[in-house]
Amino acid sequence: MTPVDAGRSPDARYREYLDEGLLHFQRCGEGHAVFPPRLVCPACGGRDLDWRPSVGTGVVYSATTTPVRDGEEYSIVLVDMDDGFRMMSRMDRVSPQIGDQVRVVVRPIPGGTEPLPCVEPDHAATGRD
Fold first, then answer.
1. Is the pLDDT confidence value at 23 over 70?
2. In this structure, are residues 41 and 32 in contact, taking their beta carbons and an 8 Å threshold?
3. I need a surface site. Which of 4, 81, 97, 100 has the fewest CB within 10 A?
4. Pick the residue with more confidence: 99 or 124?
5. Are 89 and 107 in contact (CB under 8 A)?
6. What is the C-alpha radius of gyration for the chain, rounded to an integer number of angstroms?
């Protein structure tokens, strides 16, 4: 557990983890998962927030496919992460269904430069290729 760095924004620390290829979230002293990163837990108001590595797996809660002019369509998904928080993400080349098991991959999106947490099917969980 790494306590919130004094003098540095939670977003800056979160992006440093992403630069390392890692997805992290915060957990308050009462045990609530906090995401996106914040200074205060939205559930209890606690300020004692520690950084935790995400297990990187979850289940699709909601999904929509977005067409792209002159490009490949992609999906925007809400994922209930196994760590206890819900995250919006992107899924390329797959039309996800509610309930699909996914895993996080941290990478730049097409046309982007900063790494972001994207998801892909979790074949290990489903036993499918």
1. yes
2. yes
3. 97
4. 99
5. no
6. 15
DSSP assignment, residue 48?
-
For strand 49-53 and strand 57-66, is the pairing parallel, antiparallel, or unpaired? unpaired
Three-state SS for 69? Answer: coil
Q: pTM of the prediction? A: 0.87
Residues 6+ apart with CB under 8 A from 48: 3, 28, 29
| E strands in the chain | 2-3, 24-28, 33-34, 49-53, 57-66, 74-81, 86-92, 101-108, 115-121
> Please, where are the H alpha helices in the chain?
10-19, 123-126
Could you give the CA distance from residue 116 to residue 129 in angstroms, rounded to a whole number? 24
* Total Cβ atoms within 10 A of residue 71: 9
